[in-house]
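Supplementary material to the annual report.
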Amino acid sequence: AQKVTQAQTEISVVEKEDVTLDCVYETRDTTYYLFWYKQPPSGELVFLIRRNSFDEQNEISGRYSWNFQKSTSSFNFTITASQVVDSAVYFCALMNNNAGNMLTFGGGTRLMVKP
Amino acid sequence: DSGVTQTPKHLITATGQRVTLRCSPRSGDLSVYWYQQSLDQGLQFLIQYYNGEERAKGNILERFSAQQFPDLHSELNLSSLELGDSALYFCASSKTVYNEQFFGPGTRLTVL
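Predicted assembly:
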């Protein structure tokens, strides 16, 4: 069975602070994909990043960066110099090759960035 | 805008009724997925179609069914509705089954 855990249910920071959202996953497969999605107050789910299990290189996109560590089964997401517009619920998700390609989501982390 | 469209945006109905949610995938995407988001269950996968064929089923109730049509749009049918079916229903699409899934804006279903 596969599982995604986002232990932080809610984080509150002040604008310009850096913040890291944790994601820990469980799977028995050697080939899998990890994702992050953002759900702003408007409700839609916005795709942020996809990584496959063979690519452990960290990725940076503007103020966003992702740290993938297979040794600890973690795929953490860092926002640098947070802004009020970053306030949203962030979901980490896992897809296996042989599980129907469905996404298994974590419970989400609600990030509140205060001015 | 992800390119995935869902109608209607909101739906209010009564227990015991039947509703149909519609989804049009992004241009060129062959795979369509349905997810349910509720406060108690979180985001849960319901069902997947690829090029018209059912490919995978998740925690989808027997009262729920779906199909994907030749033009690749999909419909999710929910029948004998119960209060607990109130949720946000998302459709997502992807080019192939291994690509990232892009989500529509969702249909918020309220069962009274």
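The interface with chain A takes residues 2, 31, 33, 35, 42-45, 48, 55-58, 88, 90, 92, 97-106, 108 of chain B (CB under 8 Å).
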